TrEMBL record:
Chief subcellular location: cytoplasm
Protein name: Trigger factor
Location of this chain's protein in the cell: Cytoplasm
Top EC category: isomerase
Keyword check for Chaperone: yes
Biological processes, Gene Ontology terms: 'de novo' cotranslational protein folding; cell division; protein transport; protein unfolding
Any one Gene Ontology molecular-function term assigned to this protein's record: ribosome binding
Protein role: Involved in protein export. Acts as a chaperone by maintaining the newly synthesized protein in an open conformation. Functions as a peptidyl-prolyl cis-trans isomerase.
Gene that this polypeptide is encoded by: tig
Length: 447
């Protein structure tokens, strides 16, 4: 088999593969056998007609096409294995020469995992600073307040709502070009009906702690002074969402107060501390909280530092990205966006309509970030290769078992997930951990 390989731009290669005539003839015979398996010819049992008769009945063109598919598939895989080529995606196959008694020649064009020229990644790790971690009294106070609120009692009040009260309220939002982005769509037949335009959305028994502005900026202030059973209508300026797309304009909101309650927090004393777990007193609780907050802050700082380092490495690396990898990452980002919107009760098509952009425009806006994500993945992979990082089989199986433990059996897991994909994903995660451990070690060695 003769093979010529030519490098193309954007990490693609073109292979011209020539299969000797003697090998090609074997594929022709195999094609006749495959196509003749179900052929019924008078005087012969099904699938048992001689080759000459099968060729006559089926036709030369169909046999050549079948043989070409068989030959291309097997020869292509053979070349990848022998030449140790890491292909990405399906190849584009073009048949160049195809005739009986002659060599079979075809061309395969495919993207490959690109070569990555890394910068001095250990030096980069040493140069990227880490933030100092400390736990102050404010951190402890905020955590204790959260714990007290989680054990709070609620006393129903027959008086106007004020800052700090917990209220339950029904909200109806008049239709505007943007409100569905913020309020889950739906119409309640019990909503006030005064002949105005249709409603864009409603929220029933929405729980709000007045003053925390947890739902919409400015809404809490509009609810101050309302009593149980009272209704009110007001305008509210809608904010710009976190993606920078205009959601805003004014929305007309109608509110009905269903319940006003005072939040009674438990007293912070030794008894309360002991009710939270195995703590002797308030001092013991504070000590444990400080340790827990310290661990949490350190984890967040480690994650921030890891991303800062690997982004710097990716920025300084030299790599030609295949279009197919960029497109895959764009598709992944679109899936992530759709998942996030679904969690908010929104549909992707409605989101596109609200921000007045098409799916193609959103995909295009992902390109820069998608390229960086691909580069980061390739850099992590290349560092692992250069450092000869290998994942122990027992450790890999143990890590996979943690995930698989949620299923009753392996058979049940096979019905829900691709075990081979899980294996590759888990192995990649474990490799990345070791890469970051290596970079952490380099940081620790700086003078």
């Amino acid at each position: 088999m003769n093979i010529e390989i030519k490098k193309l731009p954007k990490s693609e290669i073109e292979m011209e593969i020539e299969v000797p005539a003697i090998e090609w003839d074997k594929y022709l015979s195999l094609a006749v056998k495959n196509l003749g398996q179900n052929l019924e010819v008078p005087g012969f049992r099904k699938g048992q007609a001689p080759q000459q008769i099968v060729e006559r009945e089926i036709g030369k063109d169909k046999i050549l096409q079948e043989a070409a598919q068989l030959c291309c598939r097997k020869s292509y895989v053979h070349v990848l294995a022998t030449k140790k080529i890491e292909a990405v995606g399906a190849p584009k196959i073009t048949v160049l020469k195809m005739a009986t008694g002659n060599p079979f020649v075809f061309r395969a064009q495919v993207a490959v995992v690109p070569e990555v020229v890394l910068p001095e990644y250990e030096k980069i790790a040493r140069d990227v600073p880490k933030n100092k971690i400390k736990v102050d009294d404010k951190d402890i106070e905020e955590t204790i307040n959260y714990l007290r609120k989680s054990r709070a009692q609620f006393v129903t009040l027959v008086k106007p709502a004020q800052k700090g009260d917990c209220v339950k309220v029904d909200l109806w939002v008049d239709q505007t070009p943007s409100t569905e982005v913020l309020i889950k769509p739906g119409i309640d037949e019990t909503a006030p009906n005064d002949g105005k335009k249709p409603l864009a959305g409603e929220l029933k028994d929405q729980v709000i702690v007045l003053g925390e502005n947890s739902l919409l900026p400015g809404l809490d202030e509009k609810l101050f002074g309302m009593k149980e059973g009272e209704s009110k209508e007001f305008d509210l300026e809608l904010p710009v969402n976190k993606d920078g797309h205009e959601v805003g304009g004014q929305a007309k909101i109608r509110a009905k107060m269903n319940l006003v309650q005072k939040i009674v927090l438990p007293e912070m004393n030794d008894e309360f501390a002991m009710s939270l777990g195995k703590f002797k007193d308030v001092a013991d609780l504070n000590k444990n909280l400080r340790q827990g907050i310290l661990v949490e802050k350190k984890t967040k700082e480690d994650e921030r530092w890891h991303m800062a380092v690997i982004n710097k490495i990716a920025d300084l690396s030299q790599v030609e990205l295949p279009e197919i990898l960029i497109k895959r990452e764009q598709d992944k980002m679109m899936t992530e966006l759709e998942s996030n919107l679904t969690a908010l009760g929104l549909q992707l098509k409605d989101y596109f309509a609200k921000i007045q952009r098409t799916e193609a425009q959103i995909q295009e806006s992902f390109v820069k970030q998608a390229k960086q994500r691909v580069k980061i993945g390739l850099c992590l992979r290349q560092i692992a290769r250069q450092e000869k990082i290998k994942i122990d089989e027992k450790d890999l199986e143990a890590e996979m078992s943690k995930f698989l433990s949620q299923f009753e059996s392996i058979d049940q897991a096979k019905k829900s997930i691709d075990l081979e994909a899980l294996r590759l994903y888990t192995e990649g995660l474990m490799e990345n951990r070791q890469v970051f451990a290596l970079l952490e070690k380099a940081y620790g060695l700086k003078s």
